[in-house]
Amino acid sequence: MTRTLYDLCGRDERLRFSPYCWRVRMSLAHKGLETHFKPWRFLQKDELAFADYDKVPVLCDGDKVVTDSFEIMRYLDAAYPEAPLLGEGVSYQRALFFKHFVERSVTPSLFRIVALDLLAAIHPDDRAYFRETREARFGCTLEAFHQPEQGRQALQKTLAPVRELLRETPFLDGEVPSGVDYLLFGSMMWAYCVSEQALAPPDDDVAHWFERMLAQYDGLAARAFTVRDLPAG
Amino acid sequence: MTRTLYDLCGRDERLRFSPYCWRVRMSLAHKGLETHFKPWRFLQKDELAFADYDKVPVLCDGDKVVTDSFEIMRYLDAAYPEAPLLGEGVSYQRALFFKHFVERSVTPSLFRIVALDLLAAIHPDDRAYFRETREARFGCTLEAFHQPEQGRQALQKTLAPVRELLRETPFLDGEVPSGVDYLLFGSMMWAYCVSEQALAPPDDDVAHWFERMLAQYDGLAARAFTVRDLPAG
């Protein structure tokens, strides 16, 4: 059976930084599912017409087409029940809260740290589209939105409960990583891929967790291509 | 079997506002466990000597003594497994994250809204102790810490993921309330008991959830005595 994930790429096709694609990539590795990652760019809407969707990730699992990263994680739990990502009942419900925590509280702070790095990482053909859609969402220019110091302070504060939890267990979901770890990791990997700067001081428990996450699945994320691997300029 | 919970009281013995006692009170109701709530004040440390502890809640369940609200919730799950509050495995782990979210992100914002209301609600004999311990923690006077508008803005932002979740289900833990609901409710009930002011605009999903929580267990929390029931002055 062919399994394909449409995966956002940047100005170099090897540069894959979408937070939503990263949470799915880690989830697929968690389930041990071999997958072909197909590079996709913002303006290639036609290529996703078959899925009746205009964003990635889109998963094609044999004949089955699934859109939206969280729906893909749910689908993987339903189709491959071993090693649950989100689980069911209250487990699922609490993971859903964590998804909203990441998307409403963590990702906006990260965006302030890397807004212009992100613009630079995107394919030149996609930049006008990216600028237009994001500036409409933020109500200001990307240049005005880019406030790394403010973003870092907000992130530090937002992650306080995560830091507290990591004093007790190596991963957010306990002794081994699972769905909730991938939700946060996806967003942090997004910033990690496009930025030259470290995200947290090296003695921070969150930074240590991030290192452990990079090392999972034989260093799947540690081996990822980042802007630091690009030739200068 | 006798079951007693030592429960913080204020300047009127009927005034019970501790966020940690409220999460346990709701948890006991969730388990259907009849309990005697024994009023306790900050300086009555001697009365807790038997528990080798100096704060409430303290639960005496027959011969068993359990301290710390979250430990009491764990104990209740272990001793009365029906209708889990926190659950086990990843369910538990995700509830533990939520506990830290409430204590590190929600409660500090609420404290800024009600710091002086809280001081006024406390028994006059306890106020010097309360002021001294809290001012040492905050590094400023209670008067300087009391910033209701700033607290309200921070709370609105912090609760964004909660609000998002409540668009999908009536309670944080799904169709019926459970441990995670009680963790947040305890802190909001704390502010509700000591303050004259509403916590959220009446059309907010969080406010609607709070109303539903007040109504649980035959209006257990709705019937609580608050400062609004005290004679003026």
Automatic annotation (TrEMBL), chains A, B:
Write the record's keywords in alphabetical order, separated by commas: Transferase
Provide the GO MF annotations for this entry: transferase activity
Output the superkingdom of the source species. Bacteria
Give the transmembrane ranges: none
Q: Which Gene3D superfamilies match?
A: 1.20.1050.10, Glutaredoxin
The keyword Calcium appears for this protein: no
Query: Which Gene Ontology cellular component annotation is one that this UniProt entry carries?
Result: cytoplasm
Report the residue ranges that make up the GST N-terminal domain in this protein: 8-84
One Pfam family assigned to this protein is GST_N_3
Q: Which PANTHER family match?
A: GLUTATHIONE S-TRANSFERASE OMEGA (PTHR43968:SF6), PTHR43968
Instruction: Return the protein name.
Output: Glutathione S-transferase N-terminal domain-containing protein
State the organism named in the record. Answer: Vreelandella salicampi
